[in-house]
Amino acid sequence: MPVQSCGPAPGRPCSHAPGLHRLNAAPAADVEAALLDCFGSRRWAQRLAAHRPYPDLDALLAAADEAGYDLSLTDRAEALAVEASPALAPDAAPSAHLALAAAHAAYESRFGHVFVICLDGVRPAEHPDQVLAGIRARLAHDPDQERVVTADEMRRLARGRIIGLVSSQ
User: Fold this and answer.
1) pTM to 2 decimals?
2) Would you state the pLDDT for residue 140?
């Protein structure tokens, strides 16, 4: 079950996407593995796999959101541990790479985990600006405020990846 990463918003599949049927019918272990690529918490993936079948994509996305809200700090940390910070294209200017690396380092030093942001609906050319602006704005957050924002971004990432999962099958 291949998974698309979160990026520019793909066309939303119909609510009865063929991939959803396959997700509903696949063995639980296969579904859990595919869902772990959407959001790196075993508890989250197990919960979604256990509550199948989903009548439509909206029900699956609602269940994913609900499961995300119910996670412990340990579950969220597990999911964050497998995320990668957004990067620039290799051909970007060296000064841009340096600025982004410094911003990521400052963020990770302050909050203890990688910076995550969902860029669905943002043109690829705007990704570097969005990431840098996001890091700079979020560095001003207190840890509790940033924990909430990070959780929201993680849920958005998961939603985009789930849409990619069910539309790529």
Assistant:
1) 0.85
2) 97
